[in-house]
Specification:
Chain B: It is a peripheral membrane protein. Chain B: Keywords: ATP-binding, Nucleotide-binding, Transport. Chain B: One of its GO terms (cellular component) is ATP-binding cassette (ABC) transporter complex, substrate-binding subunit-containing. The complex is a heterotrimer of chains A (283), B (366) and C (311). With 283 residues, chain A is mostly helical. In chain A, 72% of the residues lie in helices and 0% in strands. The radius of gyration of chain A is 25 Å and the shape is globular. Chain B has two domains: 223 residues, Rossmann fold; 115 residues, OB fold (Dihydrolipoamide Acetyltransferase, E2P) (Beta Barrel), CATH 2.40.50.140. Chain C is built from 15 helices and two strands. Classes of the chains: A mainly alpha (283), B alpha+beta (366), C mainly alpha (311). The interface between A and C is large, with 101 and 97 residues.
Chain lengths: 283, 366, 311
């Protein structure tokens, strides 16, 4: 009886093994396209032209990757993406933390009304504001600038929502103890509460960085000059001409090169990324 | 520095809900005052109003003659120990204690001296570099007290500080608090719902119920001369026995007719007793087994609680009411026994239907 | 201490003279400085553009400026435009293809991987990994898989002497091709949502079922699935909202073709506004999309609120 309640309920049966084999097989099928891309990226362009099946055997080469270092605009695009996503992430963390603390802890006129309006903003899809934003930025001459790429992301209510929830979950006695300790409201925010929100900062930071890094709409219409492409847009721009397959291996190496950083990031911050993405979906 | 706190006509409302209704009370300098009451009676709210964490809707609070109810909490020169301790989780013990002192710009050497002194007094010197998460409940409790001590405040406020400790630790900490109290001369206000904490720690107790003060008095006054039926019920364990009685007089003292018809002569003056629906209150310690001596009444034992030093007998009288009687620790009474009870008429209390109380004249009856 | 007492009594005197009630919980305008920076961006970059878009949809507008008021003309033009109607149909078709697949596969994966072993954790990581890639890389991968002559699919079919289906060019198959790539890309999210729902089913219920000798299938059917019913509905709605916004995959894999059979609403909006620069028309189309998504988002709101009440 005691083993019933403390141990596994369902033992490792034949059924379990069959399921495990099935999910492993499916995972392999799922990973096959990625393996295909990596294999292609390691082949000489000319060899691929004559025989695609050469993918399955040596010789492999890293020449394509060497060529990226020499010729590609990929570095410029990565730099752009780092500036845009990094800048957006930092500013989102600052704005969301301040606002989250304000909404969760301080009392000011119309606070609840304002918070509800911000929450309603969660339901607004990007497409409903894009055209007007684009026009606004045209007038302000913000297109093809870094701030033009960063600013629209600052309006997203998700971070404020997340940080408000997080601040609310911190016991209010901490604020009160600090008030009795003669701390100002800003000091309470900065010294007492903010250090406790680091897990939320990580979640929000990763989510913001990832969505910005992968954004394919705003940079497409705002950063239209080649030197202002983000990585996502830049890689897309190389795709149009690969039917000729001359540089197939090279194109693939570029894709691998562009995808690798985010996958590596995922390996390290897997738990946070999963939390961030699922959290953002459910709200 | 110590505080004489004057609370006058203080009220607190949340919208249409009144949680405190026109309270007045004085807390003397160096006094250990306990606010005692059931949860929701407003005792914590009153404490938080003194701290400045709740606004005062009506009335005033003064410390040493100076009005403080419109000052921000940090400027009232008081310290508070929270039920949850509210230690800053990311700061070391030393930083937790120093935070408030740094905020008022004290010189570093004064801060470290005060922290060291408090740590010595509370025996937490070896914990100074740890964070709260690495401490046991009892250690956190000490740090929370230390954080209050270093501020050398005019008054200490304690908001149910022992309720998060396990039973054994709670008793030990209670004793330590009593010792600490002798070393730190300052006004202390302690909120609790535990009557034993209140009785053991307090100079005076404020019993609160339902937005109002029921009684203010020393622990023994509260115990032996409860001002209302509520106080009589709330203080003392086991709870006081109540029997509906009819009253008559003899030599100016009330004579109570118990439900089973027997008469019990009390030491309470009949004069001044008013209202209707009177009941007689008597604590278990004044109800003994009648060993051949004058039995007041008889009953059947239904439940026996053995506490070691004494035994409580839950006895049902003929007409149905239950009286808790006290017997010696090694009592041989068994469940179902018919017992004769002797009620000590000199140690009784009378209450009317509104809860007003009358007691005997003497003091020494306990 | 001396300092503290001094400052304390000094401000006590000040407070007494002005008789202001300094309440820690009182609403103060200066507290709003914490939310003001965000609200500035929220208003200028979300609220204003939202209403501006609505206003634009009632005007003739191009890249050079806003022209005259045309009432609901833009909307009438949309409903007369066969390509727009087709794009709405395409979008619904796409949602129909992807959402049930995402929900069911996600549920099956979650059920299979809801255990505390290392292999399950590794497999969860694998299944979620594609979700972190950008749409550009996803479409690049799938074009290379689907492309004729030298794609992975063609190569595999070639081993058996067969011809692979032309997912990028056959009008009947393009939407399906895009849907396959999308399911591959997005499967991580529904799986994770189901997993977290499964982990919230109280263990005691399973223990009680085990004591009642319930078989594995009966446990699944009568305990597990009913417990996560609400999550299932939530996943469906979240995915509807997400998949309604199909854009990158269609633009990058098929450019909406052939002959507009794979053109979704967002691509229509993009082309109307940013290639034809008919901003009024684009704005009107985006309002229609907004309304469609709003309906789904409202459903999500009510369902999560109901869950909140019960939980």
């Amino acid at each position: 009886m005691s083993s019933m309640s403390s141990g596994r309920i369902v033992g490792r049966s034949t059924g379990d093994r069959i399921i495990l084999v099935l999910v492993i097989a499916l995972a392999l099928i799922m990973m096959a396209p990625i393996a295909w891309i990596i294999a292609l990226s390691l082949k000489d362009n000319k060899e691929l032209m004559t025989d695609m099946n050469s993918v399955f055997h040596a010789p492999y080469t890293i020449n394509n990757y060497v060529n990226i270092l020499a010729t590609s605009s990929v570095f410029r695009w990565i730099l752009n993406s780092v500036i845009v996503s990094g800048g957006l992430t930092i500013m989102t963390l600052v704005l969301s933390s301040l606002a989250g603390y304000g909404f969760a802890r301080l009392s000011f006129p119309f606070r609840n009304t304002l918070f509800v309006i911000v929450l309603l903003g969660l339901a607004v899809p990007e497409q409903a504001v894009l055209i007007a934003r684009h026009q606004l930025f045209s007038w302000l001459k913000f297109h093809n600038t870094y701030h033009g790429l960063i600013l629209p992301g600052l309006a997203a209510p998700f971070g404020v929502f997340l940080m408000t929830q997080y601040f609310r979950a911190i016991p209010k006695e901490l604020d009160e103890a600090a008030l009795l300790d003669n701390a100002s409201r800003f000091k309470i925010f900065w010294k007492v509460l903010l250090p406790l929100t680091i897990p939320a900062q990580a979640t929000l930071g990763i989510f913001t960085f990832l969505s910005s890094w992968n954004d394919y709409f705003w940079p497409l219409i705002s950063g239209t000059k080649k030197e202002m492409y983000t990585l996502t847009i830049g890689i897309a721009s190389t795709q149009t001409n690969f039917a000729q397959s001359e540089g197939l291996g090279f194109l693939m190496s570029q894709a691998v090169f562009a995808g690798a950083p985010i996958l590596i990031l995922y390996l390290f911050f897997q738990k946070y990324i999963v939390t961030a993405v699922s959290g953002a979906a459910v709200r | 520095m110590t505080a004489h706190i004057e609370i006058q006509n203080v009220s607190k409302r949340y919208g249409s809900l009144t949680v405190l209704d026109g309270l007045s009370l004085t807390i003397n300098a160096n006094e250990f005052m306990v606010f005692l009451g059931p949860s929701g009676c407003g005792k914590s709210t009153l404490l938080r109003m003194i701290a400045g964490l709740e606004s005062v809707d009506d009335g005033t609070i003064s410390i040493n003659g100076e009005r403080i109810d419109n000052l921000p909490p940090g400027q009232r020169d008081i310290a508070m120990v929270f039920q949850s301790y509210a230690l800053y989780p990311h700061m070391t013990v030393a930083d937790n204690m120093a935070f408030g002192l740094r905020n008022i710009g004290l010189p570093a050497e004064v801060i470290s001296a005060r922290v060291a002194e408090a740590a010595r007094m509370l025996e937490i010197g070896h914990l100074l570099e740890r964070k709260p998460g690495q401490l046991s409940g009892g250690q956190r409790q000490r740090v929370a007290i230390g954080r209050a001590i270093v501020k050398e405040p005019k008054a200490f406020l304690f908001d149910e500080p022992l309720s998060n400790l396990d039973a054994a630790l709670r008793v030990r900490t209670r004793v330590e608090l009593a010792q600490l109290r002798n070393r730190v001369r300052s006004t202390m206000i302690f909120v609790t719902h535990d009557q034993i904490e209140a009785m053991t720690l307090a100079d005076r107790i404020v019993v609160m119920n339902n937005r109002k003060i029921e009684q203010i008095g020393t622990p023994m006054e509260i115990y032996s001369r409860p001002a209302s039926r509520f106080v009589a019920t709330f203080v003392g364990s086991p709870t006081m026995n109540f029997l509906p009685v009819g009253l008559s007089g003899e030599n100016g003292f009330a004579r109570a007719k118990l439900p089973d018809g027997t008469d019990l002569q009390t030491a309470i003056r009949l004069e001044g007793i008013n209202g209707s629906g009177h009941s007689l209150g008597i604590r278990a310690e004044a109800v003994k087994l009648a060993n051949g001596t004058a039995a007041t009444t008889t009953g059947k034992v239904e439940v026996i609680e053995r506490l070691g030093d004494r035994t409580l007998l839950y006895t049902r009288l003929k007409e149905g009411s239950v009286v808790i009687a006290e017997d010696v620790g090694n009592s041989r009474i068994a469940i179902g026994d018919q017992v004769a009870l002797a009620l000590d008429g000199a140690r009784t209390h009378l209450f009317n239907a509104e809860g007003r109380a009358w007691h005997n004249e003497g003091v020494g009856h306990g | 201490m001396a300092e503290a007492t001094l400052s304390g009594s000094a401000s006590a005197a000040k407070a007494a003279t002005r008789q202001a009630v300094q309440n820690v919980n009182a609403p103060l305008w200066r507290h709003a400085v914490f939310v003001a920076p965000y609200l500035f961006f929220f208003v200028t970059l979300l609220v204003v553009p939202l209403f501006w878009s609505m206003w634009l949809s009632l005007h003739k507008a191009d890249a050079f400026g806003v022209g005259r008021f045309v009432g609901i003309d833009n909307y009438l033009r949309l409903f007369r435009d066969k390509i727009f109607i087709q794009s709405v149909g395409n979008t619904f078709y796409f949602v129909f293809l992807t959402v049930p697949a995402l929900a069911l596969i996600g549920l099956l994966l979650a059920l299979a991987l809801n255990r505390k072993t290392k292999s399950a954790a590794a497999l969860r990581a694998v299944y979620f990994s594609s979700s972190v890639l950008s749409v550009t890389i996803v479409t690049l991968i799938w074009r290379i898989v689907f492309i004729g002559n030298f794609g992975l699919l063609a190569t595999v079919y070639g081993w058996f002497g067969a011809t692979a289906p032309a997912f990028l060019s056959d009008p009947k198959l393009t939407m399906i091709g895009i849907a396959i790539a999308t399911v591959w890309w997005c499967i991580g999210l529904p799986m994770m949502l189901f997993l977290s729902a499964l982990q919230q089913v109280p263990r005691e219920i399973y223990e009680a079922a085990a004591l009642d000798n319930a078989s594995r299938w009966r446990t699944l059917w009568h305990i597990t699935l009913p417990s996560i019913r609400r999550t299932f509905v939530l996943v469906i709605i979240i995915e509807i909202v997400l998949q309604f916004q199909l854009f990158g995959q269609a633009r990058l894999m098929t450019q909406g073709g052939p002959n507009n059979v794979s053109k979704p609403i967002v691509l229509y909006i993009y082309e109307a506004a940013f290639t034809k620069w008919d901003l009024g028309l684009g704005a009107a189309a985006s309002e229609i999309l907004f309304i469609l998504i709003m309906i789904a988002a409202m459903a999500q709101y009510f369902i999560s609120r109901r869950r909140g009440e019960e939980g």
